[in-house]
Amino acid sequence: MSTETLSATDFPHRRYNSLTGDWILVSPHRTKRPWLGKVETLPRSDRPAHDPKCLLCAGNVRMNGERNPDYKGTFVFTNDFSAVLPEPGQLPPETSPLLHSEPAAGVCHVICFSPNHGWTLPEMPVEAIIGVVNTWADEITELGKKYRWVQIFENKGDVMGCSNPHPHGQVWATNFVPNEPTKEDNRQREYFAKHNTPLLLDYLQIETASKSRVVIENDDWVVLVPYWATWPYETLLLPRRHIQRLPELTDSERKSLAEILKRHLTRYDNLFEVSFPYSMGWHGAPTDGQSHPHWQLHAHFYPPLLRSATVKKFMVGYEMMAEGQRDLTAEQAADKLRGLSEVHFKSR
Ligand code: H2U
Ligand code: ZN
């Protein structure tokens, strides 16, 4: 037995997240713990292709009174309840350095992935997923001209607080770089300064050589459970070549991205035979007009489910007060995901 396998499966240990600088406590000896806690209700599965009451379906009227067009592919609109607004407000003068603030400006968009209300990304044809990838890239190009950070994300499933089952994601573009990407920017910058190569490219080499945490790969992309994963089935999607931002992807890389997304998300759905809830998002170099060679484009998937469609991991108690903790090791999670079918359970 190698020293890595021994310590990783048998003993409590901490793993360092080289991308954020956070630590995670891993307690693999606890995986047989009985569960007497909260059980989530199963989300309804079969939905119609059009729901006359859905605010995101084609031709329907949204909450602000606007009618959605009869869209055929993706459809982008400005969030009627945007968290940031284009004009920064005037803040009152600070009375103490302990009461520090700064103006926040930006725009929030909603991206409907498809007019088909009943679909989710893994159920969409690859051609339609390419349309989503192109929309993500276009949003970064357009909003990136004005804003320093363009956060693309998808919140999927009732358990994640997603308000509408219609397949959709969001874009929040801001004049500031938020906390999470700032941590990643710092770690990647430090690594590049020391090694003159991007952190995530070196990391990918380690993972593709070892294979123990790799879930699936194709010519351009790799999906893996990162060594430092916090969520039980967390994954990281990485391009093989050095790419700073999504719009740099070639047509063939967009196609291979759509293909690997479909395969990956189908496996996720098959894990507990449920439309798998998660928050996913893209991180790339800040859109400040500069080149950031330390940055490598990637997507995170943070799914909350732990041991079944109805038992969720709660980030509470020790996680809130001290640091992230997991029982299942990253290697065990990758192994489980690797063993799954790429035929969606609904179509079997
Ligand atoms: P979530 O379910 O991921 O929160 O996304 C739905 C978003 O769509 C949410 O941010 C917006 C909500 O503000 N929305 C509109 O802008 N208009 C509507 O009529 C419905 C929902
Ligand atoms: Zn709908």
What string gives the helices and strands in order?
HEEEEHEEHHEEEHEEEEHEH
Give the strand order, joined by hyphens, for the main sheet: 3-4-6-5-10-11-9-8-7
Class computed from helices, strands and strand pairing: alpha+beta
The Cα radius of gyration reads 21 Å
Mean pLDDT, to the nearest integer, reads 93
CA-based shape = globular
Number of strands: 14
> How much of the sequence is in beta strands?
15-25%
Q: Helix coverage percent of residues?
A: 25-40%
Helix run count:
7
User: Which residues form runs of ≥5 with pLDDT under 50?
Assistant: 1-5
Short account of what is shown:
Helix content is 26%, strand content 19%.
Task: Give a verbal description of the structure.
The strands form three sheets. A nine-stranded antiparallel sheet has the order 3-4-6-5-10-11-9-8-7, with helices on both faces. It has helices at 3-10, 126-144, 179-195, 199-210, 251-272, 318-321, 330-338; strands spanning 13-16, 23-26, 75-78, 106-112, 149-156, 168-174, 214-217, 221-224, 235-239, 278-283, 298-302, 305-308, 311-312, 324-326. The chain is built from seven helices and 14 strands. Mean pLDDT is 93; it is low at 1-5. It has 348 residues and is α+β, with helices and mostly antiparallel strands. Helix 2 packs across helix 5 (251-272). It binds 5,6-dihydrouridine-5'-monophosphate (H2U) and zinc ion. Residues 55, 62-63, 79-81, 110, 155, 162-164, 170 line the site of 5,6-dihydrouridine-5'-monophosphate.
